[in-house]
Amino acid sequence: MTSIPTNSAPRILLAEDEDAMRSYLERALHKAGYEVSSVDRGTDAVPLLETQEFDLLLSDIVMPEMDGIELAQRCAEVSPRTKVMFITGFAAVSLRASREQPHAKVLSKPFHLRDLVLEVERVFEDQQQASV
Q1: Fewer CB atoms inside 10 A, N or C side of the chain?
Q2: Residue 1 placed within a domain
Q3: Does this model's pTM top 0.90?
């Protein structure tokens, strides 16, 4: 009889169009103990959100084809339990994200990887407290 682990690593879907940034973030999140799937555009993230379970969508806001805000709106439709966190280098875009997705955390570039991991941990802590 095999036991199934009850505390599997939280699953993160990372949507970031810049290759270097995407691999950098993916490595840091893996190192912090998260299971990460990554895509380079929002339109590639939607099918994953529809067919898999993710605890967090970590998305750049400015991307080709579908921006992060549109992706977050789609995520709310197909995977309402998935939390959303944005990363962006544009202050004006950050304000729009805060207005249109008030429950989503917005992390402005540049940021230190330690800050990213801390914010992700906070999202999961808030999620655990809400479910208690």
Answers
A1: N
A2: no
A3: no
Its domain, for residue 94, covers: 11-131
Examine the pLDDT at 5 and tell me if it is beyond 50: no
pLDDT in tens, 10-44: 999 999 999 999 999 999 999 999 999 999 999 99
- pLDDT value of position 132: 62
CATH of the domain at 30: 3.40.50.2300
Q: Is 52 helix (H, G, I), strand (E, B) or coil?
A: coil
Q: How many domains does the chain have?
A: 1
Query: Hey, which bits of 4-110 come out as E strands?
Result: 11-15, 35-39, 56-60, 83-88, 105-108
Residue 47 lies in a domain: yes
- The answer to whether 19 touches 62, Cβ cutoff 8 Å, is no
Query: Do the domain assignments include residue 4?
Result: no
* Residue type at position 19: D
Residue 77's identity, in one-letter code, is E
Give the count of alpha carbons within 13 A of 37, CB side only. Answer: 18
